[in-house]
Amino acid sequence: MPGEKVVTSKIALTYKDEIRDFLASLPPNTPAPLLVGLLATSDPAAESYANWTKKAFEEDGLRYEVRKIEEQHVEEALAQCNDDPNVHGIIVYYPIFGLTPSYSGSSHDDYLRDSVSVQKDVEGLTFTYRTSLYKNIRYLNSNPNSKCVLPCTALSCVKILEHCGVYAKSPGVHNRLQGKTCTIINRSEIVGRPLAAMLANDGATVYSCDVDSIYKFEAGGLRRCDEGTTVKSVVEISDVVVTGVPVKSYKLPTEWIKENTVVINVASFKNVDADELLKIDGVKYVPMVGKVTVKMLERNLCRLYKQYHMDRKG
Ligand code: NAD
């Protein structure tokens, strides 16, 4: 049986319905939750992502507002959003200072990332949420009403894998990926590293590939693989392969991929030759995740609104 392309719009629709039901449950005349995007980079990709987010939010009845600011005013704008009870979620478009030649620029981006209130961090990237993820803690302060927020792109991959039948249907929360091997070619803080931790927390053995190293994530910890471990050797044994290489020329050799593997491309470039890949029996190929990612962003906003802002009139 040849491979198949997975249509993510159907998966996105499930969450669209969930968001519609949540909005319908709000008291009459309650303004919809508001996400503010802080745009201080001249990167056209960030601006188009902001425009695209606005369109999706408006279609789903949520509010989104982009604020364009000079980089020296980001911290102040962020503090205002943190303090404003009418703002329920904040997204900051990076890199801001990371674009400058000095490497210390990215440290300042990290500082900004950690300055977002946990009650408004729709991306789940603050220190509090990152630490919880890497320690496999699902609720803040053990409070069942304070579920931790997870990074949207990584979460979209998890939802897609559930849809593709990779997760066991049994209700055991921590081990539904037991026996599965996954390879993720990307170890950024936004995509690859949180995704590796999430899949390992669910019981998988995860190989996390970066340009110069391969790590093995398993429930309870990670370690660097020995020199004999290669991307080829881990892809060949993987049930799931996620590619996130932000380079046009990068192509994952399809002959490494075994039958029945689920391959997800999160990069904006096509890291895999789809025609060749789909010749492999039983392969499921997900060429892009953006439609599900934006639904995860909306879902995170609604969750934060429900957990922390419901008693405030916006
Ligand atoms: P990044 O530049 O921060 O990280 C890229 C990662 O890939 C790094 O870990 C890097 O070392 C690794 N890498 C680069 N070349 C490699 C190679 N040849 N072999 C192995 N690893 C390699 O980028 P990012 O923010 O993680 O984004 C990655 C891609 O995903 C981009 O194309 C971006 O546009 C896309 N993206 C998509 C979404 C979405 O929801 N659709 C969200 C975020 C990012």
Feature tags:
314 residues; alpha/beta; Rossmann fold; three-stranded parallel sheet; 10 helices; 11 strands; 36% helix; binds nicotinamide-adenine-dinucleotide
What would you note in describing this structure?
The structure is a single chain. The chain is an alpha/beta fold and 314 residues long. The protein folds into two domains: 9-151 and 292-309, Leucine Dehydrogenase, chain A, domain 1 (Rossmann fold, 3-Layer(aba) Sandwich), CATH 3.40.50.10860; 153-289, Rossmann fold (3-Layer(aba) Sandwich). Helix content is 36%, strand content 15%. The chain has ten helices and eleven strands. The chain has helices at residues 8-24, 44-59, 74-83, 104-115, 127-134, 152-163, 192-201, 231-235, 274-277, 290-309; strands spanning 4-5, 34-39, 63-68, 89-92, 181-185, 205-209, 214-218, 221-224, 240-243, 262-265, 284-286. The strands form two sheets. An eight-stranded mixed beta sheet has the order 1-11-10-9-5-6-7-8. Helix 2 (44-59) links the parallel strand 2 and strand 3. Helix 1 packs parallel to helix 10 (290-309), helix 6 (152-163) packs across helix 7 (192-201) and helix 6 (152-163) crosses helix 10. The mean pLDDT is 93. The protein binds nicotinamide-adenine-dinucleotide. Nicotinamide-adenine-dinucleotide binds next to helix 10.
